[in-house]
Predict the 3D structure of the following.
Amino acid sequence: MRPRIGYKKLAVVGVAAAVGVVSTIALTSGSASAAEVFGYSGYSIGTDAKSGLANSGPQVLSQISCTTNSHASSKNDLATANVNNQAIAKTVTTDTHSFNDARGNGVTSNATAADIRLGSLLHITGAKTTTTAWYKDGKLQYTGSTTFASIKIGNLSVPSLLNPKPNTKVAIPGLGYVVLNRVGGVKTSTGIYSYAQAIVVHANVRNQFTPEGVDVAVLKTRAEITTPTIAMVTGEAYGTQANVDKLVTSGPTSYQAACQGTEGKTVRVSVGELNIPRVAFIGAVTTTKNGYTGKDKAAITFTSKTASVKVANMEIGAIESSASAWKTKDGKIGLNYSSDVVSVRVGDKVYAVPNKPNATLNIPGIAKLTFNQVVRKDRFISVNALVIDVYSLNTKVIVGHSAAGVIG
């Protein structure tokens, strides 16, 4: 069950003790200069339904993500892709790969299906969609297209739609409508991504194949390439995430991630207070990211702030964390993090918050608290400001997660 989210005015509780931890790590590559790299990302998906339905997320997924490898590739195939327990696409294949050749530096994503069917409403054979994004001679470009071997709406064959124009909208009686050959691209100062989707089904009529109000993409592809940069940036931030054993039961809240940066702009995501049933009450959560890539320097910073957390009769004041990573053209790499937990209170008792990394505090009969949980690698750092292990519920709640790194 998803947590109920409501926007309300909040008060921070128990501001009686504080902990703040800040750490900086600087590394030098030893090289007088660092070579520029490209960032490659992309995916191909057989079917993808957007409605929160169980068992209807991305199927037949091929993906490469945030890599500097110009020969990365991923392939997948499946006999049948289902949505709502209905066989939508048969004999599905997907592949995504990066390249560095006469075309330039780029990514191509392909998806095919031998047979696509929504009962007697829509029948398509020989579907193929592809998109490519590339950089060459200082220019960013993309292309995308979809073709079909045959297409039938009801009992009527429509040969004029075998090579549809971009974003062709077609009414489907008894279903709603579909968009064929949905394509586009978005260009920024640091790169470009393109997308192509063979069919996007918009079910706005009650039918037996897809629930009313559901959007289903069939053969969905994306390709992304960055301009030359000293390094790729990566990372993530979220306010809270709750797990029972190894199962995620809530979150991550206010989640953000990055691969190219934000062109130096601060991107903020916030939610009001929320309730994780039988686990915790969470105050307002805000995360930010700010980063950029270039030929002289690449840098990224993530932050996370949660107003308060209540577990059983334990109240925890504001929780914050941040993580930063950067690389300069002379090969120097820097990592920085901080975390802060304002207070811990149970009833009228206020606990001293330990002021050191990976410190623990046991609240008898309630929970074990771990503060400033840090993981370091050569070019990546992550921090959880607070991890709560709730004894009675066999539940772990992570609060204040930030991570940042550079690739290349």
User: Anything to note?
Assistant: The chain has two domains: 40-226, 232-407. The chain is about 0% helix and 65% strand.
